[in-house]
Amino acid sequence: MPAFDHRYAFQCVLTGKQGTAEEPLVSTIHMPRTWPKKAEIYIVRTDGMSCSRETVRASGCLSFAHPSTQQQLLVWRERPRCVLVLKKLGDEQWDSYLRVLRYLGAEEGMRVIVEPHEYLKLAQQSDLDFVDTYNHDEAGRLHQHVDFVVCLGGDGTILHASSLFQRAIPPVVSFSAGSLGFLTNLSLKNVESDLHAVIYGCEDLDQCSLGEKMSGVHITLRMRLECRIVRQNQKDNTPQELYEVLNEVVVDRGANPYLAKIECWERDTLITKVQADGVMLATPTGSTAYSVAAGGSMVHPNVPAILFTPICPHSLSFRPVVLPDYAELELRIPGDARCPAWVCFDGKQRQELARGDSVRVRMSTNPVPTISKTDQTRDWFASLERCFGWNDRAEQKPLGYINRGDGSS
């Protein structure tokens, strides 16, 4: 039996005639096609706070309005006047700390704010009359007065700055004085010149065509997660425990001998039930912290996403996923779980979640703006190489390379 000839079958359909596969028919019928006119549409682009409408004509095509990962530039409209200086715990960087305070206060004439416990130590310094501090009641208003924040330390100091400003946070410039410093690309060796560049700008912005010559600095708007703890049988009008995290929120089994059982919801849809040591929701900034250690992907901080990473899941098919930044997630401890769970935010404020309790997580409207050394992408790849030795291997020799055994080639 001869093989089925698709071309022959197609021609029979066109002509309505019958023939044989050995003598295929050639269609002489032309079938002009008429297509309906393409409908015009509106594209409404919105960021949740404002929107714009774009008309797509019948002859047009959909396209992105602009890349989602644009470079962000900070330009002072007025000279900054007030700065908050933070340093990591301990006295290893005390001399550098005093050096920064004196430069900002004595040479640049700025009002310098320090933390209360450091202010007590500085009382013995008679030349620091420009230094001030704040009390507990004033901490919530710091963002209204501080122009930018200087961090002397590692990534933990930046996380501490994020925790001080649970809402809006001023731009942060960080200098490496820790053990890893993935987020700290500036060195204390050139602290005065780097701070001068932040205050007066170091990048020429002529390409923006704003009608005047201005200078600024590159910044990265680092997404944070807004996390709310909802207790079982909690009334709607009861104040909820609110946290803003820069790296990740983690729900785990704690010291319990059983696997954690966690229901994961996206709005009203059950995504999955986790049976594992725990699960974390991380920001792109936090993707290079605990998340990457648990097998998650490394994500550029300008990618708008939430990372969903299981911790030692009891399933070979449970792989990390990346969700859009508009996802609204809930990690809930079901009533039939064998044991309660524990939650922590950026490694702090650890507390128990009883059966029926949950943590609701969504993107915060208040990012952490960090000032770049060069720009967002080059800084990030430099940190991957410096801290992780990313893709570090001996380079492959070209074809024709001969190893003579005596060290020469």
From TrEMBL:
Q: Where is the signal peptide?
A: none
Q: Which GO terms describe its biological process?
A: NAD+ metabolic process; NADP+ biosynthetic process
Pfam families linked to this entry? NAD_kinase, NAD_kinase_C
Domain of life, per UniProt, equals: Eukaryota
Keywords of the record? Kinase, NAD, NADP, Transferase
Q: Name one GO molecular function term.
A: NAD+ kinase activity
- Family as reported in the entry's similarity comment: Belongs to the NAD kinase family.
- The name on file for this protein is ATP-NAD kinase
Which source organism? Coccomyxa subellipsoidea (strain C-169) (Green microalga)
Q: What is the lineage of its organism?
A: Eukaryota, Viridiplantae, Chlorophyta, core chlorophytes, Trebouxiophyceae
